[in-house]
Amino acid sequence: MAFFLYSTCYNSIMSNDLFDHAMHQRMKTEAPLAARMRPRTLDEYIGQEHIVGEGKLLRRAIEADKLFSSIILWGPPGTGKTTLAQVIANTTKSHFTTISAILAGKADLRVIIDESLERRRLHNIRTILFVDEVHRWNKAQQDALLPHVENGTFTLIGATTENPYFEVIKALISRSRVFQLRNLNQTETGILLDRALTDKERGYGNKRITLDAAARSHLIEISSGDARNALNAIELAVESTAPDPSTGSGQADGIIHVTLDVAQESIQRRAVLYDKDGDAHYDTISAFIKSVRGSDPDAALYWLAKMIYAGEDPKFIIRRLIILAGEDIGIADPMGLVIASSAAQAFDYIGLPEGIYPIVEATLYLATAPKSNSAGAYFKAMKKIEDEGQVSVPRHLADGNRDAKATGQGKDYIYPHDQEGHFTPQQYLPKRLLGTYFYTPSQEGYESQVATRLEMWREAQRKALDISKVENVPDMSEEEIKEMKRKIK
Q1: Cβ atoms 164, 73 nearer than 8 A
Q2: What is the pTM of this model?
Q3: pLDDT for residue 16 is more than 50
Q4: Can you tell me the distance from the alpha carbon of 467 to that of 474, in angstroms, rounded to the nearest whole number?
Q5: Distance from C-alpha of 406 to C-alpha of 366, rounded to nearest angstrom
Q6: Domain assignment of residue 362, yes or no
Q7: Which one of 371, 396, 416 terminates a domain?
Q8: Is residue 274 part of a domain?
Q9: In CATH, what number is assigned to the domain containing residue 222?
Q10: Is a pLDDT exceeding 60 seen at residue 114?
């Protein structure tokens, strides 16, 4: 009876082992191409030469199996963050644990911490914890990592598509080395495609495949440096294309011909990388605004189209255009602000899709308008107040409607509209600031006319100013009075 139970249990265990092994073997062949082709060593790793190239800091640390206490891998999807973590797992003698911040919480982290402490205490084995999408954890969850990163319970490797300086708590960032991964260039993407087609163990090296040059170029171009996207596309192209029986003894060993049409169908229209709360959002609106400011309507239209295609809120775009109209065009073309504001009103009436027309009109108008940032003169005045404090309003500019006889407020004020040309050269700044100019008109567009007119008025003010009025200004030194006279002259 005992032998029977032992035999049954043994056979059951062996059956489970065999089943697991068979399942693992099937997964190796049935897994997506991108998973099968994932590099296993640094020598197989493609791209990111700036951080894992020969002699680079991170490569040396991986090869020496002496990683930093915490590493943050930051980059767009498909640039190799998880792959690099897997390479580390294959290289290190430490125990490697992986969790996803999307699925795991503090309870899961607690288990990992306890296991890491036990592993270190009993077996003196270090633990490396890889947290995918680490930015998904809230502050409390990220705080829970800190003491264990500091005391060496585990080495942390966090991966994120978002800017960690915004999405990861400062205390953790300060204890981490941040490595930014970049999109692969076209040569690197081409190497990945060629490797997938020739690798007999994990790729399609055992199939007869012809990839047209135009198809290859299209896949490389449209994948935009995303390795996963490129491999998924070539996999779909190969798996969905029947072999040509005329090129072999039958369809089974015929050539699979991947043409440009097949490649275009396989990769289709790439979804634009654009997270409204992420870097792509801020980078794209930045590119749009800089293109309008730089007077490039073609670039402005491109970035506008990308934002609309990705689902950006058109009202956000319009608000930025209104700001730009005041900040970067200003009086060089006062109609810029009118056009931008009108676009906002028109879009409220229309909405998408037709509402794109007033947005495009405003974009083109502002991009081709003369530019001036002279409205920034406001900040010079603000800095003056911050640096020197506020001063009282001169008596002749004060409100004369409130008991003017008793206080003298408004006395000696001259009403400009009663004068020739509706102008009088009286002074409007406090005595301390006489001769100070914040606003410097540009010579662009309409503002060039403003510059001519303003210089005439300022010259009249200088001539009309009685120098003696500044001789006894309270709280001013002799040097300050001399400087004021110099500016007035």
Answers
A1: no
A2: 0.61
A3: no
A4: 15
A5: 52
A6: yes
A7: 371
A8: no
A9: 1.10.8.60
A10: yes
State mean pLDDT over 58-82. Answer: 92
**Secondary structure of 429-458 in HEC code, one letter for each residue:** CCHHHCCCCCCCCCCCCCHHHHHHHHHHHH
For residue 422, the one-letter residue type is H
Q: Three-class SS of residue 66?
A: coil
Q: Which domain holds residue 346?
A: 279-371
Neighbouring CB atoms inside 10 A of 398's CB total: 17
Q: Which amino acid is at 189?
A: T
> 130 and 99 in contact (C-beta within 8 Å)?
yes
Identify which of 410, 371, 406 has the alpha carbon closest to the alpha carbon of residue 393.
410
Q: What is the pLDDT of residues 253-309, one digit of tens each?
A: 789 999 988 998 888 755 566 666 667 778 889 999 999 999 999 999 999 999 888
Query: Please, are residues 351 and 358 in contact by the beta-carbon 8 Å criterion?
Result: no
Q: Are residues 338 and 400 in the same domain?
A: no
Q: How many structural domains does the chain have?
A: 5
Q: In 3-state terms, what secondary structure has residue 21?
A: helix
Residue 4: is its pLDDT beyond 50? Answer: no
Provide the pLDDT for residue 471: 47
Measured distance CA(417)–CA(153) in Å, rounded: 79
Could you report how far apart the first and last alpha carbons of the chain are, in Å?
117
The confidence band for 105, taking pLDDT boundaries of 50, 70 and 90, is: confident
Residue 44 lies in a domain: no
Q: DSSP for 220-265?
A: HHHHTT-HHHHHHHHHHHHHTS--BGGGSSSGGGSBEEE-HHHHHH
The last residue of a domain, from among 349, 371, 393: 371
Q: Does one domain contain both 404 and 325?
A: no
Helix, strand, coil percentages (3-state) for the chain, rounded to 5, are 60, 5, 35
At residue 17, the pLDDT reads 46
- Name the E strands within 70-132: 70-74, 95-100, 127-132
Contact in structure between 105 and 71 (CB atoms under 8 Å): no
Question: Is 111 a member of any domain?
Answer: yes
Distance CA 1, CA 39 (A): 51
Work out the mean pLDDT of the chain and round it to a whole number.
Answer: 85
CATH number at residue 162: 3.40.50.300
